[in-house]
């Protein structure tokens, strides 16, 4: 059993802020934990516009707080985001997230994020193999 | 992309209350979604004593609200649970959860729960194969 707290991982290498400062992601479970998924708390700042594309990962995002707009850039569909909304990127959809108020969400990635990925010029996380992965 | 809300799944077959009424689990992602994990919001009532054992699943639990006590029944270790605490059952540990105040947590299971499991006499979820699973 592993027990960790959000406070414990804050300001460690599990706590990542985007280069533009728009979002911050605290990864409490990563690929190195070898459980087949990673689990993150992500906050995105109010008034920002963020395009993401996880070409190699499925992601589920469940909003705890905040509201805004989600646009599926593959088909143009727009969804309202409020506390309790969950979106599941089961088709590697390119998407845009525009928080009206700061959003706080818990996110699950499969395969797990290793923590060493950076978004490339397309906003894509590469698939990084973790030697500790079982 | 799938978009759902906690409200939409409330009082559907994705919303399960334990036989003793101690806990309620809203499963927003299940095995049928075929993404390799399930994702649940679970509330456990204050003052209850709950023993769990997931012999076939890994589970990560991240507390959003509430506090209480977690006991690892395999080694007797006791952990305080507060908002922001995460526990990862990576070794199928038998464990006891005793909320002092109502706990609200987001939980990830691998392999995903199908939604048709019931806890058996040992508090174990059996491994149910989902024919829709990829």
TrEMBL record, chains A, B:
Tell me the pathway: Amine and polyamine biosynthesis; ectoine biosynthesis; L-ectoine from L-aspartate 4-semialdehyde: step 3/3
Top enzyme category: lyase
Record's keyword annotation contains Lyase: yes
Q: Name one Pfam family in it.
A: Ectoine_synth
| Claim: Lyase is one of the keywords in the record | yes
Q: Which UniProt keywords apply?
A: Lyase
SUPFAM superfamilies named among the record's database cross-references: RmlC-like cupins (SSF51182)
Q: Per the UniProt record, which EC number(s) apply here?
A: 4.2.1.108
What reaction does this enzyme carry out catalytically? (2S)-4-acetamido-2-aminobutanoate = L-ectoine + H2O
Q: Which residues form a coiled coil?
A: none
Q: Which InterPro entries match?
A: Ectoine_synth, RmlC-like_jellyroll, RmlC_Cupin_sf
Output the NCBIfam families linked to this UniProt entry. Answer: PRK13290.1 (NF009806)
Instruction: Return the similarity comment.
Output: Belongs to the ectoine synthase family.
**Stated role:** Catalyzes the circularization of gamma-N-acetyl-alpha,gamma-diaminobutyric acid (ADABA) to ectoine (1,4,5,6-tetrahydro-2-methyl-4-pyrimidine carboxylic acid), which is an excellent osmoprotectant.
PANTHER family from the xrefs? L-ECTOINE SYNTHASE (PTHR39289:SF1), PTHR39289
**What is the protein's given name?**
L-ectoine synthase
Q: Which organism is it from?
A: Rhodococcus kronopolitis
Q: Which gene encodes it?
A: ectC
